């Protein structure tokens, strides 16, 4: 077995100090490693397999029904993707997960997640939006790997992986997932096991709220893992609420709102501004919020 590599991120949980935290990464074969020196691709260039996707608006009979009545979909024409990392952000119900799901289905991923080889369904809930999405690809580039990771159906995916591993006749079980059943780990541990073992680069990866199971410390670990994937010619599209993940350098950030989709700088996102304001003035903000709630509760007392 090849020895595992370790990637480092900072543990900021200790007051006044920073300690190193390591995440095990599988060793890569020589042919999979990028050349070092002048021949290496730029750090944030990624894979660039999909340049953009567009909504085939002429094929839609009505924008008054779901999901076409969502502002982000109703106003959508063409959306360019960064060759490395693109983020979708917005309030709950803004359509970011719906659009990410449609893109995943158009790229032939399973609606509940997994690779293109996974073909299972526990409860069909996806919309018809993918039927009206056209994907524009980069000529001459072909992804060799891919994965659709969504927090809400990860348990179902882990069960499918468990079934497939039990049916496998060759090799040690769960080798592609770090050697342990995903169900034998916590939600967050299984997420990291997938990212650090199964996803090997050279592919297109779609993540829907990957931070849902992760502590802030583990989100820092994921930043390191994302960068590993980008460096190894990967392209990622991520729907998230995490101000930590959003900090990844040079990424495209698209904000979904009542006026549609617009590009936004990291420091202009609500995720950044609200988190920063709360941490800098948490006592004052708590005082305002809770006093207002107290007043509201008292006004409703009999």
Give a short summary of the structure.
It is built from 7 helices and 11 strands. The protein has 302 residues and is an alpha/beta fold.
Question: What does this 3D model show about the protein?
Answer:
This protein has 302 residues and is of the alpha/beta class. The chain has a domain at 46-153 and 203-291: Rossmann fold, CATH 3.40.50. It contains seven helices and eleven strands. It has helices spanning 71-74, 96-106, 154-167, 187-198, 216-231, 270-280, 282-299; strands at 5-11, 19-25, 50-55, 78-80, 85-90, 133-137, 145-150, 203-208, 235-239, 252-257, 260-263. The chain has a six-stranded mixed β-sheet, with helices on both faces. The longest helix has 18 residues, at 282-299.
SSE arrangement:
Elements lengths: L4 E7 L7 E7 L24 E6 L15 H4 L3 E3 L4 E6 L5 H11 L26 E5 L7 E6 L3 H14 L19 H12 L4 E6 L7 H16 L3 E5 L12 E6 L2 E4 L6 H11 L1 H18 L3
Parallel strand pairs: 5-9, 5-10, 7-8, 8-9
Antiparallel strand pairs: 1-2, 3-4, 3-6, 10-11
Helix pairs in contact: 4-5
Broad structural category: alpha/beta
| Secondary-structure element string | EEEHEEHEEHHEHEEEHH
Mean pLDDT: 79
Q: Give the strand line-up of the largest sheet.
A: 7-8-9-5-10-11
Number of helices, where a helix is a run of at least 4 consecutive DSSP H or I residues = 7
Q: Tell me how many strands there are.
A: 11
The N- and C-terminal alpha carbons lie at a distance of 70 Å
CATH class of the domain at 46-153 and 203-291, named Alpha Beta
How much helix is in the residues?
25-40%
* Percent of sequence in beta strands: 15-25%
Unreliable residue stretches = 1-5, 8-41
Rg (CA only): 21 Å
User: Architecture of the domain at 46-153 and 203-291, CATH level 2?
Assistant: 3-Layer(aba) Sandwich
Major β-sheet annotation: 6 strands, mixed
Morphology call: globular
Which topology of the domain at 46-153 and 203-291 does CATH recognise?
Rossmann fold
